[in-house]
Amino acid sequence: MSVRTVKQAIKKFNKFLITSHINPEGDSIGSQIAMASLLKRMGKEAIMLDDSPVPQVMRFLSGSEEIFKEMPNNFNFQAAIILDCPDMARTGRVSGYIKKETAIINIDHHISNVNFGKFNWVDPETSSAGEMVYDLFKAFKVKVNIEEAAALYTAIMTDTGSFRYSNTSSKTHRIIAELIESGIRPHEIHTKIYETSSVQDTNLLGEALQTMKLTDDGKIGWLWVTKEMLKKTKASLEGTEGIINFARSIDGVEIAILFRETGTEDRVKVSFRSKGKVDVNKLAGVFGGGGHPTASGCSVFGKPEDVEKKVLEQAKRALQ
Ligand code: 5GP
Ligand code: MN
Description:
Layout: H1 3-12, E1 15-19, H2 26-41, E2 45-49, E3 67-68, E4 79-83, E5 103-108, E6 119-122, H3 129-139, H4 146-159, H5 170-181, H6 186-194, H7 199-210, E7 213-214, E8 220-225, H8 227-233, H9 244-248, E9 255-261, E10 267-274, H10 280-285, E11 290-291, E12 295-301, H11 304-319
Parallel strand pairs: 1-2, 1-4, 2-3, 4-5, 5-6, 8-9
Antiparallel strand pairs: 7-8, 9-10, 10-12, 11-12
């Protein structure tokens, strides 16, 4: 299915629920805000509801304050637009509000997307859900305003690693040019998102870097964020975003892995990044996760040392 199918689907309904995945990042937040705004400008009703709070660094975005954490009473939506989300379970608590009769409109760029909607527009070639929402503005012939442009810029900038990753195309840059013409200041958005970390988060980075190890052939690099480190540095979990890139940035590393102890249970959040030779979407899939060929993740239950052993074994296998 394409943007046209989704356009036709949207025309049929008047009340929408918009959501994305748990622990949202720039693409999920930005694409939701722009989507909600587009629908409202077309005279439709739309609310945004997410499982997890908006990350601190994205709260500058106009519209982010409208993302609900709990379902408002008496909002009987006909359709749910689910953005940047490969399956229903990744919406977390929000899936509990989706009824059998709800028309699910699935808009995503994850290769691991399972086409869980009534209407599915899944394009793994696209950099971000933000780019897809931009295509919807074009399809409806609605000119992006400055608030929507800031949201879409955030979505596309964060998912392309500031336009460095292989998912960045000439189309991405053309879209960005148009967004800038609507009046946003890219350097201000960049500063808000990437230059507002705390000294605690920077101390945590220092601790995590100390744990970096490489396999003998230098092709796998991994590092840890442990409960103890979080306690010692008083850093936030949000502050661990980006740490994995230090492992990928080492010459010769093909697979970077970040292990994070996030909660009290015996569960480790594992993130993978690849330089392109290894499909880490498949690697995360071994543990029930997914994502993209060069960026993926999963949660693995077990003691930290056991999780590390299991994951490294599979990573070595993926390299062969
Ligand atoms: P990150 O490592 O930054 O958390 O996530 C990288 C990519 O992998 C994102 O596209 C994200 O959606 C996906 N991802 C991360 N964790 C999981 C997971 O537990 N399950 C699935 N299906 N995808 C994940
Ligand atoms: Mn995305």
